[in-house]
Inverse folding.
């Protein structure tokens, strides 16, 4: 189905479909995962740290089995979907608005023989093309911030989750006590007017009928991650310039600096959120 039309969704789709963004993320992250990683040391590879986040989220629900029906909201290149399919043998619907990323995702799935386990769907998670109670686990990593209506995303998650189902996700957020205006450079860079916050997600999910199960605050990892990405970008700049425009690299460098500053000053929040739909 087509994605809803709004400025935030359209901007995100255009950005992630661009050749510059696709080449940058595939090169710097390694083509599997596109989200914040969990670092055990400052020189951890971005790919290893990002995979560590996937493993951590997978450990949050009580149990994932081959019968668990999963929807991954904002699946990117499909690293998490493939991990879940290979590790647990479960079926995953990978919903993502970037056709460019989805093409890469489908190609990797085919190479690894996972077409029967992972279904890649072009579309937005503000309106999910699925029946009520279709999934046992809703999963998302650093994607909901791009939604034009995050409240609508939460309502859709609550609708498609079966009773007893779980919603686990991460998202770059503003702190609950973030001063007004200080995140404007970040918001301008990603074409957004706001970010969600831990309090916003707790309130929105509970209003949609989901019960709060916990939030593990890992904001320090956001700073480490963006610092690591900035370091890798500068280290590999000559290589990147053969496939990514100089303007993109410069804007990325400035944008990463804003994320690092926001995290260091306590204006941002990031971590693992967990909700459950009552049985």
């Amino acid at each position: 189905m087509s994605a809803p039309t709004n400025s935030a969704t359209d901007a995100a789709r255009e950005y992630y479909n661009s050749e510059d963004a696709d080449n940058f993320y595939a090169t710097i992250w390694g083509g599997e995962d596109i989200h914040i990683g969990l670092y055990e040391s400052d020189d951890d590879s971005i790919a290893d740290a990002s995979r560590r986040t996937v493993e951590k989220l997978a450990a949050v629900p009580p149990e994932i089995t081959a019968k668990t029906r999963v929807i991954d909201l904002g699946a990117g290149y499909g690293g998490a979907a493939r991990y879940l399919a290979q590790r647990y043998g479960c079926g995953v619907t990978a919903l993502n608005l970037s056709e460019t990323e989805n093409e890469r995702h489908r190609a990797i799935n085919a190479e690894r023989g996972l077409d029967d386990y992972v279904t890649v769907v072009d579309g937005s998670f503000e309106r999910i093309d699925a029946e009520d109670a279709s999934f046992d686990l809703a999963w998302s990593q650093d994607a909901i911030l791009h939604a034009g209506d995050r409240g609508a995303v939460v309502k859709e998650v609550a609708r498609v989750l079966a009773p007893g189902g779980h919603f686990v996700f991460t998202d770059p957020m503003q702190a609950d006590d973030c001063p007004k205006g200080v995140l404007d450079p970040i918001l301008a860079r990603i074409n957004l007017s706001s970010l969600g916050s831990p309090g916003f997600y707790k309130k929105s999910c509970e209003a949609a009928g989901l019960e709060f199960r916990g939030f593990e605050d890992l904001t320090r990892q956001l700073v480490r991650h963006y610092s690591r990405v900035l370091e890798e970008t500068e280290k590999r700049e000559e290589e990147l310039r053969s496939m990514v425009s100089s303007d993109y690299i410069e804007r990325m460098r400035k944008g990463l600096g804003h994320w690092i500053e926001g995290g260091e000053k306590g204006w941002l929040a990031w971590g693992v959120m967990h909700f459950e739909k009552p049985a």
Notes: The first strand starts at residue 69 and ends at 73.
